[in-house]
Design brief:
Elements lengths: L2 H19 L3 E9 L2 E8 L4 E9 L13 H17 L7 E9 L7 E5 L4
Parallel strand pairs: 3-4
Antiparallel strand pairs: 1-2, 2-3, 4-5
């Protein structure tokens, strides 16, 4: 596994642990279709929560959450529609979150959770 992939996987693990501690139930991780991937799909019992996880080892290229552009958000919305169709969900309220994880060498991971980010 490439270092970038390992960092991303670790960030997703940190994010999932955080979300579960907040009471969310993770339904799917790394769900893929031809249009892209959803990092984490969860529920808080009232709505579906789609979480985009961005992990960085430093801020030299900006904060992790800054990588979620309008174009990326539009893709996540399209992939979410595919997820809903694949799981035969006709309608439900959906919230789109961003979980930004910073894992700097020699330091504990830090996390910022942006609810309803887009």
């Amino acid at each position: 596994m490439a270092a970038k992939d390992a960092l991303g996987r670790r960030g997703e693990d940190v994010a999932v642990e955080y979300l579960e501690k907040r009471g969310l139930v993770v339904l799917t991780r790394n769900w893929r279709c031809r249009d892209g991937e959803l990092d984490v799909v969860a529920t808080d019992a009232d709505k579906l929560v789609v979480c985009e996880v961005k992990t960085r080892s430093g801020t030299g290229f900006g904060e992790p959450a800054e990588a979620v552009t309008g174009r990326k958000a539009a893709r996540i919305r399209r992939v979410t529609q595919a997820w809903l169709a694949a799981h035969k969900v006709r309608w439900c309220e959906v919230r789109f979150d961003v979980v930004a994880v910073l894992i700097e060498p020699g330091h504990p991971a830090t996390l910022q959770h942006y609810e309803a980010a887009f």
